[in-house]
Structures are given as structure tokens and as C-alpha cells.
Amino acid sequence: MRWDSWFKRRHWEGQMDAEFRFHLESQINDYVTQGLGREAAESRARREFGALELAKDECRDQRPVEWLGQIFRDASYACRSLRKNPGFAAAAVVTLALGIGANTAIFSVVHSVLLKPLPYSQPDEIYSIEVVIPERRSQFASLPVTVQAYLEWRKAETAFAEMSALRPWECSLTGDGEPERLGGARVSANFFSLLGVPIARGRGFSVEEEQPGNERVVVISDALWRRRYGADPALIGKSINVNGESHLVVGIAPPSLPVPTGTLLHPFLAFAPRIDLWKPIAVTQRELKNENWDHGLLVRLRAGENPEHGRQQLQAILNALIRAHMPGIKTELIAQLVPIREIYAGKVRLRLLLILAASALLLLTACVNIANLFLARMASRAGEFATRIALGAGRARILSHTLTETTLLAMLGGGLGAVIAKYGAGLLATYGPDDVRLLAGTPLNLPVFLFAMSASLATGIVCGIFPAWQAYRKDAATGLQEGARTAFGGGRAARFRQVLVGVEIALGTVLLASAGLLLHSFVKVMRADRGYQVERVLAVDLSLFGQGYSRGETRIAFYRELAGNVRALPGILGAGAISDLPASGTSGASQTIFHATDTNFQNMVLARPVAMVRSVTTGYFAASGSALRAGRFFTDPEQVLVAVVSESLANCLWPGEAPAAVVGRTLRGGNVTGPLITVCGVVEDVRPGAVDRELLALMYRPHDQWASGPMTLVVRTAQEPAALAPAVRAEIRKMDPNLPIPAIRTMREIVSSSVAQRRFQMMLTSLFAFVALLLGAVGVYGVVSYSVACRTRDIGLRIALGAASSDVVRWVLSHGMRPVLIGILAGLCGTIAAAKALRSLLFGIAPGDPVSLVAVTLVLLLTSGLACYLPARRAARLDPMISLRHG
Amino acid sequence: MSRHETTAPGDAKLLQGTLDMLILKVAALRPIHGYAMVQRIQQISKDALHIRQGSLYPALYRLENRGWLKSEWKTTEDGREAKYYSLTKAGRQQLDAETAGWKRLCEAIALVLETGE
User: Does the beta-carbon distance from B54 to A476 stay under 8 Å?
Assistant: First the structure.
């Protein structure tokens, strides 16, 4: 408000005061003249005048003001009215702050993950490319690309301006301090220029560095540069020791640059959760001989080009390449473009939107709750409202008063909610799953602020519209006749409040039932049989590098000796190593598996299954707890080439045959010309930690026959595994003090982090559902208490006439629970409809899962039953004499 | 209109807008302040109409706001400052219209009552 208008208002108020004073003084003077004492005259005059402040308020309402002033007046009226009721105001503000805060926090995550443009130049032009082999679709929805296809595509003139391949690169950093295991990526030289982000310091890679022999240069992340090298600018141009080889640091990547991590780019490409080092891809002749579908590919479309046109170009080149290579093959490969936004958002979109929906439901519940509180309070102010209407305040004015009051509350709630959102979004970004954490940035930016503002406004209107409507409809005369108590508490208004409670319970039921379904799924996931032991198992990733391990035999001997030493430790039941933990999913080498009788590669390659190949040391199966179906595990040493196959692989190769019949059969891996391998055992199938994916067809090979690079040591313990981690670490140290040892994790942790998304979803939905349940209980309690208060006389009469207290309790309960029961029923119907959206997030249960729904119904009944019982008990204890006299 | 509702001893309830009409009527004679207005209405109606004083002022402010009344501060006979209300041109038209309407209503009611007997 401007100063001059403030003065105007002071002046106006002064005049009004003077006028009222004049009136009272005249009256008092008259009474004194009539012979009354001064004091008696004063009190009589005041009594006859009626409520002075109320009259002043009414006059203020009549004051002609401009539109803005009107809002100010309503706001100041609202402030006054809220100040009179600080408890109510505080409860409402806190409720709304929680609702708006939760929504804003979730929205800030949704905004940064799903809406905000990625921090690349022209991010809409960037795509990832995958290949689909139609004949393999049932097993692999898509595949990464081969290095041959990548090189062929890059050579051709297409709709794409740039292409950059990338693949995971595990790094051990040694030499300058504590040895460390880091996540890295091998990338084409143009990786950073494709993304369009300038290197923060130094330079990116040059084309020459893609030549074998020139590739030992790295760009390191800003985080690693600060953490390990103290942000020393002189690091550029120096060499660091990565995987036992000296690499020249040429540049520092820009800070907080999002790049595909984990399996975001493709399920078969397992990048580390953080990428700290980048090194150019230099394709060697040896790599060109093998055809491995193990490169991710990012491309940038030329400005103005049609992506579909580019896709067809790539597809034609790919199929020509395959034909040239294998003339007899009968398949048409499909090249697939995935917008880069989908890489980050695709997997979390549904989850995030459902969480946003859940938080919106929570806010709606809070709104209904506030509306209900307002109605209750209006009941106690019924006289005031009726007077205002009768005075001709105008129904529109009453409506705007109520709306101003709720909007003011919502704005206060929104302000507090923004603070909650700031911390909440921070928590979400810290504890959310990796793909949320990756992009969730600064929470309070303009779109988020606008969201919070509009959420607050909408909240204010939704909260106020029901009470305002009630007040609007209210007939002034009946309001006055009915008297303050029943005007808004009895009759139609009471029914209206019951309807609101029903709505509140219905919303709460939807939330709670969704949470129940997610929780039950989560329990099922955690309890699912994965084909390996989860409890009391430790795992640690190891990577041998450097001169000492250049020969395969030394690596084989290392793991053999290490496993033996660890097994000898007290409290350890078994130890062995595997190339890729089953919990980590679909990464690692894979081969097409042929029958021994197959002779034509090109005819058979698409007919035979592809298996992930795992290299294991003896003792691995005992340590992991996988059950043998037939045959035997590996012994050391094996006389001939052997393999243990998973049940699903055995079933693909020899459909319909019992595991025992498979033992002793022979197969070939990779090609029909490969050496014969004998199946010595069939082992149960394993599922990745997150369980919800397909079973993996697996072929296990003894480590000394199929030496792999990095291995994971798996240790099974008799007791709590974490306590033995230091002993295992000491054992590794003893064998090689320079080996970087990452944190030793329990299998439970690994599995648990692989279900992080599911847990995130379940926890947030449960939290919202819990708050909604509380709000619902408060709503029920409020309405029942109020109706008991209104019927004190009635109840007193019943008791006086001999009703037992149990009758009173039953009477109150049956009244109070009616809207609850209807609400629960409606909510359950809503849930079954909403569960269609949830279906893909459920595991092992149907959307109509009776266990969850019954449990939820019981929780709701108990909670609202308690909320009804408390006022019912109070009613039953009424003293009939007192209630009849005062009721 | 209810709480300022003007209850006569005989419990006659006044219709909405009646208070406005009375105020306009009283203010039409000469400029008058709020307190005198209350006295005057009671006096003219021979104490049959009793106005809740607190309700008078909001009505005055509203009528002024609509442009039917104007006000000025003047000194009373006993030397005090008081706010005097008088009718505007629009107020006079309004009063005429309301009086005419009121008379029509009364005649209509009387007609109904007589026919009913």
C-alpha cells in the first residue's frame, strides 16, 4: 500500500471513530439528562448500540476503494480473523505447507529430469542409436552397435553431422596416492564437441589420438580434479597412472556435465554410476576381427534434417554391411533412434509422474481437510456471517472474504512450503536413485517458483470454494433464526461436511492402497528367489593390471590363491570369483551358442540362443549359493573344455530335455568353428538384483579356460558379513598392496541398490499415504466431535432417558463411520482403476491384490474408528443434567 | 433484513430495503446526523420502530457510497462536531421510487387481505 493511501485510510478511520464517538456521547448525554447516573448511562448506551467493532468492520466494508485496496482490505480482514484463531491458522498453514512443499519438491525433480533442456547445445538434435535384430527381439529388445557398423556409418555421408561411440572403461588409478577404482568411458575424439560443451580447462581429444598408439590421453572430471588433485591447474600436461599405464591429462571436463552412466544408455552397457575419466577409442585390427555389440553411439542430426531420413540411411548401410560380410544371412536389421532426453528420462518418467500424482492427491486431501476446518469454523461464526449478509454486505463480498482468507493461508503455506521444498528437493537429489540424482539440480528456479505460486493459489481457491459456496447459499434469515450453533453445523451444511470427509477418506484410500500395492510388490521383490544367496554374502570388485599381471596365468593364479586364502579365514564358508555379478544385470560378454552339429554359421546364427558368458573360479558356486540342478560344478583343474549352463540356456538349446540329460552334451561358443565344450553341470537360473527383468541365459566357464579382465570376489560368511570385510580386505592387501580395493559391499546392499528406484517410489508414496491417513483421521475426528458438540442436548436427553453409554458410543460411531465407509469403498474402486497405471510397477501381485487392499482397508477402518471413538467416548460420559441445562 | 430488523412491538418484520427507505426519508427533510436519525425514526413511528443503532452506520455508509446520500461535518447546536447526512439528487429519485414501490406493495397486500376475508 502506498503511503498517501495509508494516510487517507488513517484519516478515514479517524472520521469513522469520531462519528461513532459522537453517537455514543449523544446517547449518554440524553440518558444523563433523563436522570441516569453517568456510569449506568454509558453502559446502557453501549449495550443498545451493540457490537461496536462489528459495526466498524461493516462500515469498512462499505468504504469505496479501488480494486487493489479491496484486496488489501480483504487481506487485512483475513489477517485479523486468522489472528483471532492462531491455532487454527497454524494448523492450516502447516498442513498446506507440507502439501505444497511436497508437490514443489517433486515438481522440481520432475522439472529437472523431464522438462528442463539438457545442458548440451541443441539437445534436441542428439540421439542415441540402437540396433534391433527382429529374430532376437524376444530375447533382446535392442542391442548396442558393433564397432564395424559405427566406423561404416561414420565414413558415409548421412543426415548426421557427428557421431561418437562410447563404451564403459574400468579404471584403477595408482601412483600418486591411495590406489583408487574409478568409472571411466572410452569415447570417440569428438565426444565433447558432439555434446557441444566446451572443455573447462585444457583441450578435448584430437583425431590423431584415435590412432592405436596415440590414445594414452585422458580428460578427467572436474570432481576428480578437485578431490584428488586439489584443483591444480598444472595437472594438465602431466601424466597419471591409469590401469598400470601412464596417461597424459589433456583436459578437465566441465563441472556437473551429465553423461550417460549406469545402464542409462543401454542395458548391455554397464557404465559406472559416476564417470571420472574419458579416453579416446582407438580401434585395433584385433577388435575389427570380432563382432561385438558393445558400443553405445551418440549422433547429432544436421540442422534441418529429418531424423527418420537419417535412420533409414543408417539402416541401409548396416544391412549392406551385414550382406557383404555374411551373404547368406536372412534378416533385416533395424536401426533405432532414441532422443537423448529419453536416455535420462525414459525409465523414470512413469515413476516420477506417478509420484507427482501421489503428491497432488496428498495436496488435494489437505485442501479438503482445510475446507472442512473452515466449514467448522464458519459454524461458530455463523452469526457473524449471517449478520454481514443481512447488512447487505453482498454475497459476493462474503465469497471474496472466504476466498481471501483461504488464499492467504495457502500463500503462507506456500512460502513455508518453498522452504520445505528446497530441503526436500535436496534430500530427493541426495537419496534418490541414480537417474534422478544425475539431473536433479538447483531446486528453486523460476519454473519451480511459478509452480509453487500457482499451486498455492489453486490450493487457496480449492480450500475456499466449498466454504464460500456454503456461505453464499446460506439464507441470512434462516442463519439467524437457527442460531449460531446449528446454522452451519446442522442440516445441509453438516451433510456437506460429511461428504467432504468421505472425499478425504476416498483420496486417502487411493493413496494408501497404491502405497500398499507398491509395498507388497517391494516385499515380493526383496523376497524373490534370485538363484543366489543375498544374506551373509560379501562382494568386492577387483581389477588386476600392470606388468605383474600381463600374463593370463598370473591372473588365474592370483584369484585361485586369493579365494583359497579367504576361505581359510575363520567365519568364512566359501569364497570364489566371477566376472560379472548376477545381481548387476545384463552387462558382460555374450556369445551365440551353437550345437556341436551346426556347420553353417550364417544359417544358424539367428536360430541359436545368445548367452551371457561368465568366468568363475572354483568355489564361486559354493560362495554364491546357486543350486545345482544336475551334473557337477567345476573342479580344479579341468581336463577338457567344460561349461556349466543355466536352466534357461539348457532349455533354449535342448528344449524339453531334463537337466540330467543335458549333462555331457557338447556345444560351441561364438562360432561353428569354435572348440567343442562339454556341459558338466546345469545350475538354477539367476535373476538380476531388480528381479523384474527376463531370466538371463548364462554360460559359466572355468576361469582358467576363459580368463576375463576384472573379477568380483564373492565371500559367504557364517555370521553378519560386514564384520568380516576388514579381514577380507587385509587378505587382498597382503597379496598386492597396490591393488585398489573399492568398498566391500554386502550382497544385500547390492541387491538393495539395484531396487533403489522401486524403493524410492514405494517410500515416497507410503509417506504421502501416511500423511493423507493422518489428515483423514483429523477430518473424521473434527466432524464427529463437532456433531457431538451440536447434539449435546440430544445425547444428554438419551442418557437421561436411560440409554447406556455403549448405546451412545454405537450411535455416534454409526453416524461418524458412514462417510468413512462410503469413502473407503469409493477409494478402493478408484484404486482398482488407477492400478492400471501402476501395473508396470507391480511385481508378483495383481492390481487388485487382495492382501494389500484388505490390509489397507483394515488400517483405514481402525484409524477412522479411533478418530470416531474418541468423541464418542466423550459423548458417552456426558452428565445428562449439565448437558440438558447448557446444551 | 434481519438483525437491524426493526421489530415493532407487534412483531412486524420489515422487508429488506425498508431501513434504507426510512433513512432516505428522514434525511430528505434536512441534513441530519446518525444519532438524530435514530431518535427521529423512533419519534415519527411513535416508538413502534426500533433501530439497532450499530446497524445504522453500515447502511449510511453504503447509501453514501451509492451516491444517494452526501455527508459533511458540521457543528451541532451544543458546539460539537457531527457528521450530517443529506439527500443527493439521485437519492431523492431513489426515495421517490422506493416510496412508490412501497405504496404499491402495501396496496397489493391490503387487496389480498381484503379479498381473503
Answer: no
ipTM greater than cut 0.85: no
| A246 bridge partner residues | A241
Question: Do residue B65 and residue A25 have CB atoms under 8 angstroms apart?
Answer: no
Looking at the complex, does the CB of residue A59 fall below 8 Å from at least one CB of chain B?
A: yes
When pLDDT is averaged across residues B27-50 and rounded to a whole number, the result is 82
Interface residue B114 vs chain A (CB under 8 A): no
The set of residues, in sequence order, having a beta carbon less than 8 Å from that of A591 and lying 6+ positions away, is A610, A611, A613, A669, A670, A699
* Spatial separation of the C-alpha atoms in residues B98 and A476, rounded to whole Å: 23
Q: Closest Cα to residue A707, out of A561, A566, A585, A553?
A: A553
Nearest CA-CA distance, residue B41 and chain A, Å: 15
Do B94 and B67 meet the contact criterion of CB atoms below 8 Å apart? no
* Residue A388, all three cell numbers: 454481514
Give B116→chain A minimum CA distance, Å: 27
Taking an 8 Å cut-off on Cβ atoms, the answer to whether A390 and B62 are in contact is no
What pLDDT score does A381 carry?
66
DSSP-assigned letters across all residues of A462-516:
HHHHHHHHHHHH--HHHHHHHHHHHHTTSHHHHHHHHHHHHHHHHHHHHHHHHHH
Torsion sign (Cα): B11, B17, B19, B25: negative
- Closest chain B C-alpha to A375 CA, distance in angstroms: 23
* pTM higher than 0.80: no
CB A440 within 8 A of CB A427: no
AA letter at A297 = L
Taking only Cα atoms into account, the Rg of chain B, rounded to an integer number of angstroms, comes to 15
Query: What's residue A795's pLDDT?
Result: 82
Q: Is B58 on the interface with A (CB under 8 A)?
A: yes
Task: Round to whole Å and give the CA distance between A185 and A812.
Answer: 68
Write the residue in A23, A61, A477 that is nearest to B53 by C-beta: A23
* Count of all residues that appear for chain A in the document: 887
pLDDT in tens, A82-138: 787 787 788 888 888 988 888 988 888 888 888 888 889 999 999 999 999 998 887
Beta-carbon contacts of residue A743 (< 8 Å; ≥ 6 apart): A540
Give the number of other CB atoms < 10 A from CB of residue A287.
16
> Does residue A64 sit at the B interface (CB-CB below 8 Å)?
yes
